[in-house]
Amino acid sequence: MSLKDVLKPFTAWKNLILEPVSIKKPLERQGAPRYRGFHQNDLEKCIGCGTCEEICQNAAIDMVPVDGVETKPGDSGLRPQIDYGRCCWCALCVDICTTNSLTMSNQFQWIDSDPEVFRFTPGADPKYWDNSELGYRKPELYELYNTERVKVEELHPEERDRSFIEMVKGFSKEQAMRESDRCVECGLCIATCPAHMGIPSYIKAVRNDNIEEGLRVLYETNPLPEICGRVCTHKCETVCAMQYKGDPLSIRWLKRYIADQVNSRDYQKILGTENLQKNKKKVAIIGAGPAGLSAAYYLSLMGYQVKIFEALEKAGGMTRYGIPEYRLPYDQIDKDVKYIESLGVEFQFNTKIGTDIPLEKLRKDFDAVYAATGLHLGRSTRIKGSDHEKCYQAVDLLREYTLGQEIDVQEKIVVIGGGNVAMDIGRTLARLQNQKFGKVQLIITSLESEDIMPADREEIVESREEKIRIEPGWGPKDIKIKDQTIQGLNVIKCLSVFDDEGRFNPVFDTDQKNFFEADMVVEAIGQGMDIEYMKGVVLTERHKVKVDKNFQSSEPWLFVGGDIVSGPDAISAIGNGHQAAKGIDQYLNQ
Amino acid sequence: MSDASIYRDKFPQKNPDGTNQIDLENGKFIKIWQGPNHPGITGNMSLELVIQGDEVMECKTHVGYLHRGFEKLMERRRFIQCFPICVRIAVPEPDFNEYCLSATFEELAGIEIPEAAQWMRTLLLEMARLQSFLMWIGGQAGSFGMGVIGQWSNYARDLVLDRFEEITGGRIYHMHMTPGGVRGLAPEGFEKRMEENLVEIEMIMKDIQTTMFENAVFKKRSIGLGYIDPSWVYDYGITGPNARAAGIPKDVRKDYSYLKYTELDFEVITGKDSDAYTRADLRRREIHSSIDLIRQILAKMPKSGEYMAKVPNVLHWKIPKGETYVRSECTRGEFGYYTVTDGSGYPRRINVRGPSYTHAVALMEKLAVDCNIADTAGLMVSLHTYPPEIER
Questions:
Q1: What is the pLDDT of residues A119-165, one digit of tens each?
Q2: Which of A1, A17, A306, A380 is the most exposed place for a label (fewest CB within 10 A)?
C-alpha cells in the first residue's frame, strides 16, 4: 500500500465532466426486435387447437370462447386467454403454435390499477401492441415437432400398372410410431370425422405401441377399420392442425396400421365380445354395406338378434363392388365382415328386398328394420350418344368386374367425371387395357378444373403415374358415333361449375371445343338410389328419405341410413349406422 | 502484542476441536442475525452470528427463505417445460442452468446438437460469465462501502444484457438453450455491436481497476480477509475462482471441456494469496479473459446453418431410462445437473449441484469466525454465492 493507492481513486472525479449514461426517457425505450413481450394472436389464423394451453408450464393459458369466432370444422371456436399473473414469457406457446398465429410483440409496459385486466385474450381484447411488427416470432429452423409426414410405401407405377395387388404397402412399426408422434392431440379431427372416432386416442395407442388399446378405441366408433383404414375419405386429415406448418398426419394409414397388426382370431378376446348376451328382439338390416354392417355390429353388442339381407353375393356394399381391389383388397373386407359375423349376425345374400321379399314381411317378422341400400344406380349425362351400347356406367362396370364378369375393354377410352369413382374406373380400365393391349390410352375428363376436382389429390397424381391423361375443365357435348361405333367425345370448355351461391350451375364457352378420341365412353358423374321398395315413406324436398337425428323415418319401425341419407362415403355411413343402432335401441326400449 | 489482544485471548476459550467455547449467558457475547435481507448476503439467506466486541466468534448459516422447490416442480413437467423453470435457480446467470439441463436431456435422449448451436451456447455462456462478474464486482465494492463501482459495473452489465436481449428476446431469463439446440442465431450486425460494448466495458474496467483495486481502502479491508487454505479445496469441495485464488488450477472448461472450449485459446487463471483481494483480482482477470473468449467465439462461430436438432414431438417426448451428470464452469465454480430419467415423459429426478452450497454454507461458517463484523458482508461476497442456487 502506498500514497498512490490513496490518491488513485480520485481519478473517478473525471466522471463529473462526462455525459451521463442513463436513459433519459426509460418509458420510451423499445424492446429488441426479438423481445419476448406481450402476446398477440391473429384470430383469423388461429384454429383454437389448444396446444399453447397444453404446453404452458404455468397453466397461464385457458382456451375460451370469443365473440365473433364460430365453431366450425377445423376450428374449435376457442381462443387462448392468458393470465399475466402466471405467464413467465418463455414463449413456448409461440413455438408450439400450429398455425403461427400466436406471437409476441416487443412491448413490455402496461400499467393498470385493476389486476383483473391482466387476464386477457390476445387479439380479442384490443391492446396498443396488437399491430406491433416487432417481437418474438417462432424462429424459422426451430421446430418442436416433426412437420413432415412419414411417407407410406407404395408399389412403383411400373409394378402396379397392370396389377390389382394392393398398391399401398402400409406403415412399418417404426414408421407408424414416428408418424403418430407428430399428433398434438388437439382433437379437431374428432369433431370433423362423421363417425367422431377417437383419433388422438388411437394415435396415442400407436405411439405407446399398445395395439390392443388402439383396436378397442377403433371399435368404439368404427367396426370396419380395415376398410376405413384404406379407403376412408379422411376428412379428419383436412382439418389436422399439423397441416399449417407442414403435412397433416396420415390418420388413415395409422388406423390401417392398427387393424393390420391384429389377427382376426384375437378380435373377440381383445374387444371383450366373447360372451355377448342376446335378447329376444330382432332387427332386420337391408344392405350389407358399411352402414348396415356398422348398425349390425352395434346392435349385436346391445344384444339384438340381427339379420342382414343383401342383394349381391357378398357383404361390403360399395366398398366391395365400387372400389377396386388395388385400393381395398377383398380379404380385408372379409376380415372386418367375418368378425361382425362372429358376433352372431346372420347374413342372407342374393336377396333383394322389394323383389325377393317385400318390405312388409320384414316389418312383420322383425321388431325394427334398418335400410341402407346405397347408391348403386349410375347417373347419365344424357348427352347425344350416351345410350350407345359402348357407353357404360362406372358403377355397373366396377360391380361387374368384382363379380368376375368379363369387361369388353377397348383400346381408347374416355371417362367422364372428376370424382373418386371416375378415378377408380379409369385406373381399373387402364390396368385392363395394359393387360390386353400392353398400353394405356385413357382420358379422364371432368367439368371441374383441376384445383376443384372432387377426387383425392393422390388419386389424380397416381392416375397420371399410371399414364392416364387427365383433362379437367371440359363439359361433355355429345358422343360422336359413326357407323354404329363410337368415335370419341366432343367437349366444350367449362368456365365455372358452381354459381355464386355454391349451387351446381356450370357455365360453358361453346367456342372452345375439343375432341377426345375413343371407342368406349364411361360415365362417372354421380350415383342414384333405388328406394322403390320403401314406397310410402316421406321424402324430403330433394327426394331423399326424411329421417330424424336417429335416422328414424316417417314409419317408426323403419330406420334409414347409409349413402341414401348422407355422404356418399364409407365413414359417414359407418357413423350413421352407429347412430341408427342407438336410435333403434331407444325405439325398442320405449 | 497489544493488551487488547491478550484480553481477547481469554474469551472465548477454545474447544479441543478449535471452535470457540461460547456461553451466551455470561454477557460477553451478543448474538445477531445478519439477513435474511441483507444486501451483503446477495440473496435471501441469513447468518446467525455470535460476536464478541466487533469480532465474529461463531457463524451459523440459515437458508430456506427462498425455497421454491424447482427440482421437484420439474419432476411434474414435460422435458421441454423444464427450461423456463430452471433459469430461476441462479437468477444472475440462468444460462448455465439452461445449458446443463438441456445437455443432460440431450445426452440421455441421444441427441447431438448442431455445430452452430454449440457455438451459440458457448457464446451465451461466456456472455453470462461476463455480465455476472460485472454485477458481482459492484457487489464486492459496495460491501466495502464503494457504491459508485456498482453503478459503473451495472451499466457495463446492462450493455451485455442489451446484447442478450437482441439474441434471446430476454434480458435476465434468456431461455434460449432448449433441449435440442438454441432458439436462433445472432441477428445481423450483432458482432459489431458486441465489439463496441466490449471496448466500452474494457474502458470501464480500467476505471474500476484504478478506483477499486488500487484503492487503499479496498486493499486495507480485503487483503488477508477470508483466507482459504489450499488444503481445504478438496476437503470442502471448493471450486471456481475460490479454488483458483488458492493456487489450485481447477476449471471445468479445461478439466472436462464441453461445447467449443477445446477450440478456444485461454489459460486457467490462478492466484496465490487466497484472500478476498486475490479472489477479487482473479475475477477481474476472468472478466478480461471472458471478453477475449467472446471475441474468439464471434470470430469462429458460424453465422448461419442449422441450430436445432430434430427432436420428437415435445408434447409427448419420452426419454429412455438413464442417469447422467453434466457440469460446466459457471462464475462461481462447478455447476452441474444430475438427471435421472425412467422412460416416461417426465424427468424422474433432477438434482442441481451449485457451488454456492459449499461456499456459502460450510466454507462461510468456517471463514467468518474471528472476522470483523464489518467485513462479513465483504467476505460473503468475496465467496460469490447465490442463495437461490442453494435452495432449488
A1: 999 999 999 999 999 999 999 889 999 999 999 999 998 888 888 99
A2: A17
Q: Least CA distance to B221: which residue of chain A?
A: A1
Residue B208 domain boundaries: 115-316
Number of residues written out for chain B = 392
Q: pLDDT per residue over A185-213, tens digit each?
A: 999 999 999 999 999 999 999 999 999 99
Residue located via cell numbers 461460547:
B22
Topology at the third CATH level for domain A377-527: FAD/NAD(P)-binding domain (3.50.50)
Residue B234: which of B246, B222, B226 has the closest Cα?
Answer: B246
Over residues B19-30, the mean pLDDT reads 82
List pLDDT tens digits, range A15-34.
888 888 777 777 778 899 99
Mean pLDDT of A371-376: 90
ipTM of the complex: 0.89
B315:A12 CB<8 A: no
The per-residue pLDDT for range A425-444, each reduced to its tens digit, is 999 999 999 999 999 999 99
| Buried b / exposed e along A513-529 (16+ C-beta atoms within 10 A) | eeebebbbbbbbbbbeb
Res. B3: pLDDT tops 60: no
Q: Which residue among A21, A36, A57 sits closest to B81, beta carbon to beta carbon?
A: A57
Same-domain check for residues B222 and B298:
yes
Q: From the candidates B207, B316, B318, B319, which should be mutated to test the interface with A, based on the most A CB atoms within 10 A? A: B316
Asked whether A51 and A140 are in contact (CB, 8 A), the reply is no
Which residues on A lie below 8 Å from B220 (Cβ)? 1
Q: What is the CATH code for A171-269? A: 1.10.1060.10
Domain A29-120 has CATH 3.90.1150.10: no
Surface-to-core class of residue A251, CB atoms within 10 Å of its CB (0-12 exposed, 13-18 middle, 19+ buried): buried
Domain boundaries, chain A: 29-120, 171-269, 276-376+533-588, 377-527
Helices (H) then strands (E): counts for chain B: 16, 8
Same-fold call for A29-120 versus A377-527? no
- Compute the distance between CA of residue A469 and CA of residue A440 in angstroms, rounded to an integer: 9
pTM value?
A: 0.89
| Inter-residue contact A180 to A258 (CB < 8 Å) | no
- Residues of chain A found within 8 Å of residue B187, distances taken between Cβ atoms: 33-34
Chain-chain contact of B170 with A183 (C-beta, under 8 angstroms):
no
Domain co-membership, B137 together with B47: no
SS3 A403: coil
Q: Where are the beta strands (DSSP E) in A336-433?
A: 346-348, 368-371, 377-378, 391-393, 413-416
Q: Terminus-to-terminus CA distance in chain B, angstroms? A: 47
Is B348 inside a domain boundary? no
Closest C-alpha among A569, A292, A291 to residue A420: A569
CATH of the domain at B220: 1.10.645.10
The verdict on residue B378 lying in a domain is: no
* Residues of chain A contacting B86 with CB distance shorter than 8 Å: none
From B288, B316, B344, the end of a domain falls on: B316
User: Do residues B49 and B182 share a domain?
Assistant: no
Number of domains in chain B: 2
The CATH T-level fold of domain A276-376+533-588 is: FAD/NAD(P)-binding domain (3.50.50)
Cell 374428432 maps to which residue? A190
Handedness of CA A445, A447, A450, A455 (dihedral sign): negative
Contact call for A1 and B181, based on CB within 8 A: no
